[in-house]
Amino acid sequence: MTSKEQWAWVGAIALVLVGGGIAAGTALKGQLSPVTLGSQAPAFEATTIDGRSVRRTLEDYRGKVVLLNIWATWCGPCIVEMPTLEALHREFTDTDLRVVAVSIDQAQTEHAIQEFVKKLGLTFEVVHDPEGDITRDYQVMGYPETFVIGRDGVIRKKVIGAADWNSEGNRALVRQLLAERV
After folding, report:
1. What single DSSP character describes residue 33?
2. Where would I find the beta strands (DSSP E) of the chain?
């Protein structure tokens, strides 16, 4: 093989590698960027559980502070955490805080989710994503997982596992985010 042929092979291999990298980047899109503090919150879609099949998206909460909780009815730590979410929601009811809990329970479980909400006396918004797309889009590591999103759509806090959302530290964070203007 001549030197010219060797360089042609090197060039061809380089083109294949570059093309493969571009194709992989296009196919994976936003999955290459971590969903973490300081990143833009990914869009999501979920359905209300009241039988109206109304779709909710992150866009519905534009300009609001959003506490986005990803959970399931079968998740023990989720059950423990729910009363603290409710207490936080009640404290900030007349503000721009929106507590949104997205259930990733299987399809056809809306009734079970409704019963769960009723049993715990939850008054914040609970929606359903039976396909679990939000798990992939938010790169969820476990349940519950919660994201506090500022008015600007940027993730300001991320918690994996149950937390006391009614703690003074979390209430102070909410007050701070509510005071910010976009």
Report:
1. S
2. 45-48, 55-57, 65-71, 97-103, 125-128, 145-149, 155-160
181 vs 142: CA distance, rounded Å: 32
Q: 3-class DSSP state for residue 162?
A: coil
CB 103 within 8 A of CB 72: yes
Number of H helices, E strands in the chain: 5, 7
Amino acid letter, residue 8:
A
Q: What is the pLDDT of residues 2-29, one digit of tens each?
A: 877 777 676 667 676 666 656 555 554 5
**Which stretch of DSSP H or E encloses residue 137?**
helix 133-137
DSSP 8-class letter at 168: H
Distance CA 21, CA 167 (A): 46
**1 — pLDDT class (breaks 50, 70, 90):** confident
Extents of the domains making up the chain: 1-32, 35-179
Q: CATH code for 35-179?
A: 3.40.30.10
Residue pLDDT, tens place only, 40-49: 999 998 998 8
